[in-house]
Design a protein that fits this description.
globular; single chain; alpha/beta; six-stranded parallel sheet; 2 domains; 27% strand; Rossmann fold; Dihydrodipicolinate Reductase, domain 2
């Protein structure tokens, strides 16, 4: 372990934030990793967040958080927070990890964040989240003619609010229902709480318009299932993942917070794999 703690700031004080703090609190870094972390949180002024024994500071103003001089800022507060805070943090030279990746389906916002990162000589970080295989997808996309598709197949509990909005009784659904079929940018913006991975896959691969997405609500789904397929000059690729839902939020896979932790550690470690 290093003799000092990296200063990590988390925007958002919800379930993902609490899971990150539990895993990365100052002085509790895994012995297999070099970095320990001192953690601060940015919460909404009206939030009832009561803090956490391992959080060293809680802010309600972004400028106060920036004055704390974090080494890395992690967004866990939803797509709106990406647009609200990302550019400012990046222009200050602070790397900005985006967990609400669906926000980047907005080409204007994505371009503005990249410009801000260049200005600040830093980077936007995007974790794999609930999916894998992005190393292969990135490489395959360098070949002309590569196609990428993504299918999300989750149980009814993950889509209860969306089904209700369409007048569909969730407890009456007894067979798979196709909820959406179309390009990744539309999917990610239409369903911001469920389809961040569609945007992640598109950014890693062939782009928002070219990446085709199918969304299925399946009463028999074994967890949150993700199916990624790619084909082209490099060959064919198929990956199926059946994730356990987060105990705190059925829309999110349990592995998502671990993916964020992995990305944080990877950023600071001397060896980069994949």
């Amino acid at each position: 372990m290093t003799e000092f703690a990296r200063k990590l700031a988390i925007i958002g004080a919800g379930n993902i934030c609490r899971q990150l703090v539990d895993m990365l609190a100052h002085g509790q870094a895994d012995s297999a990793h070099d970095s320990a972390f001192s953690i601060a949180v940015l919460k909404r002024p009206d939030s009832a967040f009561q803090g956490h024994k391992d959080i060293v500071a809680v802010f309600s103003d972004i400028h106060d958080l920036l004055a704390w001089q974090p080494d890395l800022i992690v967004e866990t507060a939803g797509q709106e927070a990406v647009g609200q805070y990302g550019r400012l943090c990046l222009e200050k030279g602070i790397p900005f990890l985006v967990s609400s990746v669906g926000a980047l389906a907005d080409d204007g916002l994505y371009g503005a964040l990249l410009d801000a990162a260049r200005k600040g000589n830093t980077r936007v970080l995007i974790p794999s989240g609930a999916i894998g295989g992005l190393d292969y997808i990135r490489s395959a996309a360098l070949f002309d003619g590569t196609s990428v598709t993504y299918e999300s197949r989750k149980p009814v509990s993950a889509w209860a609010s969306e089904l209700a909005a369409q007048g569909i009784e969730a407890d009456q659904l007894d067979e798979p229902l196709e909820l959406f079929a179309g390009p990744a940018n539309v999917a990610a913006m239409r369903y911001p709480k469920n389809l961040n991975v569609a945007a992640t896959l598109a950014l890693a691969g062939t782009g928002m318009q070219s990446t085709q997405v199918r969304v299925v609500v399946d009463p028999g789904a074994p967890g949150n299932q993700h199916v990624i397929r790619a084909s082209g000059p490099a060959g064919t690729f198929a990956l199926t993942i059946a994730n356990q839902p987060s105990p705190d939020n059925p829309k999110t896979s349990w592995i998502v917070s671990r993916s964020i932790v992995s990305t944080i550690r990877r950023y600071f470690e001397p060896c980069w794999i994949g």
